[in-house]
Amino acid sequence: xxxxxxxxxxxxxxxxxxxxxxxxxxxxxxxxxxxxxxxxxxxxxxxxxxxxxxxxxxxxxxxxxxxxxxxxxxxxxxxxxxxxx
Length: 85
Prior knowledge:
Elements: H1 13-29, H2 34-50, H3 59-83
Helix pairs in contact: 1-2, 1-3, 2-3
């Protein structure tokens, strides 16, 4: 069975990958509450990948998850560095 491009998904599923990437990018821009954006980006990306059925994996969902997790890692490292005397 041939996989269709992710851009050909119908309805809301077509927007989950770009929404994930957008939320992941916003998590870097907004100084406070970035954890909310990180979680939302990861959820949208995972749902996009998990519900793909016969469509190929949406690269924007993968990129959104990676960008969001990079922000979470940086926030965790900055928190750890601020706790060190």
